[in-house]
Amino acid sequence: MPCEERDKLLDSLLEAARARNDAAHALIGCKADAFERLTALAKSARQTYKYCREALAAHERSHGCARNLLARKIRLRLPAVRSSSAKDSGFGGLA
Fold this sequence. Notes:
Blueprint: H1 4-27, H2 32-63, H3 70-76
């Protein structure tokens, strides 16, 4: 049975991983005047990722929820095939 809390924690972890990777990529080829600011941002992103990873692991230990395959979670995030009308897409006409 799916655990909603675990899903929320996993979403937070995936978002933190994206932010950490974006921050690391921003350091590549940055100008000297931005390096210090970007280094601080990358450090903060790493700490957030670590916190999210630890929160997910703690929840799994305390709640006993089964680990879902990360690949399954990522597959659910793939862009959906566009419907014939944007209104039917569930994005309020934004698709």
